[in-house]
Structure formats: structure tokens, C-alpha cells
What does this fold into?
Amino acid sequence: MLGTDKIATNIALDISDFELIGEFCLDYEIEMVIVGPEGPLVEGIYDFFREDSDLEHIAVVGPSEEGAQLEGSKSYAKKFMKRHGIPTAGYEEFTLETLDQGSKHIEQANTPIVLKCDGLAAGKGVVILEDREEAKEELSGMVHGKFGGAGSVVVIEEFLDGIEFSVFVLTDGKDYKVLPVAKDYKRIGEGNTGLNTGGMGAISPPPFVDDALMHKVRERIIEPTIKGLNEEEIDYKGFIFLGLIKVGENPYVIEYNCRLGDPETEAVLPRLDSDLLELFASMYNIESALVKHFAEQTLEISSDSAATVMLVSGGYPEVYEKGFLMTHVDDEEASLYFHAGTTIVDNDILTNGGRVIAITSLHEDFRVALKESMKHAARIKFKGKHYRTDIGFDL
It folds into this structure.
């Protein structure tokens, strides 16, 4: 598959220009808007459609502006979890005005020290440091605008030692469905070393997530989250991403996202045997003989495992070049190619971003699926190509 242009029409729209998006939806009789990026959700695209009499009939898959603050503000999310008894790391908040107190907190804190920008920072606003002086410098940089307004408030968290995994929930605000569980790999280098990225690969399901652990996740995290949204009358029709960590035998929340995460999506969605569009439609009770109410829907998940490997540009996640010719991308194979940063010029496929393409393979054994994805990763060629050969090494 050569990307979305083979199955749909790609339109260049400013994702923050809600009026333009609304006009496009009316002109082309669009019935549903599925919001992928976090930016428009945090900026209130759901509310914009709900509050416009010409657009309110259009289903928007994504939470309200307030609901999206679970991702848009680390401080908001922490306070939400505290109010509803949801297990997470201990924390304190600091600003430019309280920088001295923040430095004193770092001096007394256990290491490693976790610093998080309160707002959205394109996946770069989380730093884990062993050295206290380095942590003080990082805190100062954050509150002085290193990440713009995202760092005006900085959350300093207790470090949790365990193994991370991702749980995805689809909710209409009252009921919920749990999608396949995954584990992603964020570091650029082998053995989870180097800088954080948007994601270098994923496995679904991770073998350490058993029924006993998922029972705790539902009881201690998912259900209190949904109940909290209801109690606070927060309008939420969309995905809740739960970035979790298993500490001992217990799950804790590292972060919420208000949309599907990358690259877990490329490992999670291929394992869905249910019709995702029908699930979306059922959240709004869209008239159809095929659509049941959301609560009545069943979610069918394949027993196969999925393994995803991401090819990235040389230099990513820092400075990188693009515009390089890609070869062997259109080979007919059983695996799935998800284009992320590619473009077509004169029928040639060129690199057009930091994270270029994700390769997903399915098999009953994730190791076999991983071997297949690695085979494709080696065959695709472009200048500066980089990928991790150790995805799944710790499972």
C-alpha cells in the first residue's frame, strides 16, 4: 500500500483553522470528523462543532476541550487522578516564581529526577536525570521558556521503576471498550538509550500483561477515570490513552493522552476484528441498521500478535534531512506499511519527515512477526535510514 492517497483524497487544511475545517465538512457533506492530533483537541475542535448550529450534527471523535486537558496539562491530569484516587507517582509543581523552591526540592528528591512540562511540547517535554545539578539547570531552562509556554509550569515527579505499557480505551463518556494492549519503544538507540522520540516500534500484546494485571487496570484506573469524567460532567467521546507502568504487580499512570498514540496504533488497530467505524458511529447513535448502541457493541480482538518497526531519518529526533528517494516500498507483501513522513514526487516516493514509515507484521508468536517486520525494514532503502533492531528485546 502506498499511503492514504490510494484509498482517499488528501486535502491540505490547517488543522487549527476550525472554521475552514467546518466549511470543508459542509461543502463535502462530511458526517464524521476523527481527530488524530492532540493540538486541535486541546484547542477545542469538539466544542467548536458542538456549539455551531450548522456543524452540531457532525460526529466528532475526540473529547471536549476540558477533557483534552488530561493530555494538554500534566498538572490538570495529576489533580484529576488525585481527586479520583487513581494511582500515579507523587509530584510537586513549580513555576518561574517558585524556581528557588523547585531547586531545593531537587536537592532533597530521590534520583532519578523526572521533570515534565505542564503543556504540550511535541513529545520533548519530559526529562529524566540522575544528576541533581543538571536537573536544576533543566528546570530553570523549562520555566524560562525552553519549550515556550509549555514549561510555564513544571511538574517534578517521583521516579517509578518498572516496565511500561499502553492501554487504549474508547469511551462515549459513560461506557467503555478496551482495545488491544501494547508496549512501545521511545528511545532512539538500542537498549533504550539516547533521546526520546515519537516512537521507534511497538509490540501488541506485551506478554507480561496478563489477566490479573488487566483486572487491576480496569478496577483501579479505567473505571475511576470514566466515573470521574461523569462526576465532573466532562464531555468525552473518543480515545483515552493510558500510559502505564507496572511496579511490582501493580499498575500506575504515567500519563494520559486523549487520542491514539504512535507507534502503538500501528500495532493495535491491525489486531481489531471489529469495525472501528461502527464503534465510532454507535457513540453518537447514528441511524443505521448495523449500528447498535455503544454499550451493546462487542469488541473482537485477534489472537495474533503484532510487531511494528519504525524507520526514521538520519539525525532524528534532532536535525534531519528529507527528500531522499525510497526504494522497495511498494513490494507486494503480507506485512502492512504505514506511511508517516513520505511524499510522492513524479511517481517517486521520497522521505518527508523524521519518522518515515512503520512496518507491522502479524503472527501468533510476536517474535516471528518481529522477524518479518525486520526483514522489510532491512529491504527498504533510503539515505540515512535508521531503525532499532532490538524492538521486543526485553519481553
In short: The chain has four domains: 4-65, 90-157, 163-296, 305-379.
